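User: quick one, sequence for these tokens?
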């Protein structure tokens, strides 16, 4: 399990779940099932909108070319205002992440949903496979203590007929938040 960053609205964590030879999936974690459902619905809606609106991005490209080719002072002022908003947003996000870390309780429990590929060599002959290749499932993890050094939990993988199969792990490295591409398809 690898955590990349907070979700855009700050109510969950985005990452990747990899069980070598078994599963490779995107991961969303939150403190409640309700929030998890809301975040996943938002991600699925966003992916649908993104795939339909790729053509709409062309005007933004044109504006960038104008700025690079010597745009007016007014346009450059707008760009510097955008930079100020970006740095303000980054500071706000950093404070939110630090607050999230500080406010963890004794044994933080996170619900998660994964979406990804179940490896074909892991599928048993009795397993039901999704013809599109993308599977989804849920689970939870409970971290031990505020430092979250280790965790125990369960995972469900329908294609393997796993229902609340036990899993455990530990924190390997403390890493800063990263802007890794997150794809929920």
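Assistant:
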């Amino acid at each position: 399990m690898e955590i990349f960053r907070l979700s855009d609205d700050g109510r969950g964590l985005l990452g990747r779940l990899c069980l070598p030879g078994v599963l490779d999936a995107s991961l969303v974690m939150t403190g409640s099932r309700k929030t998890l459902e809301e975040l996943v619905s938002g991600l699925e809606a966003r992916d649908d909108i993104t795939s339909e609106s790729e053509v709409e991005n062309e005007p933004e490209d044109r504006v960038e070319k104008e700025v690079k080719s010597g745009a007016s002072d007014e346009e450059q002022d707008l760009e510097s205002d955008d930079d100020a908003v970006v740095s303000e947003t980054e500071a706000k996000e950093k404070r939110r992440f630090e607050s999230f870390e500080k406010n963890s309780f004794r044994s933080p429990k996170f619900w998660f949903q994964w979406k990804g590929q179940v490896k074909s060599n892991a599928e048993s002959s009795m397993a039901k496979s999704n013809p599109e290749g993308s599977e989804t499932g849920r689970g939870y993890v409970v971290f031990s203590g505020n430092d979250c050094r280790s965790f125990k939990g369960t995972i469900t993988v329908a294609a393997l007929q796993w229902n609340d199969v036990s899993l455990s792990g530990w924190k390997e490295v403390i890493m800063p938040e990263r802007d890794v591409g997150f794809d929920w398809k």
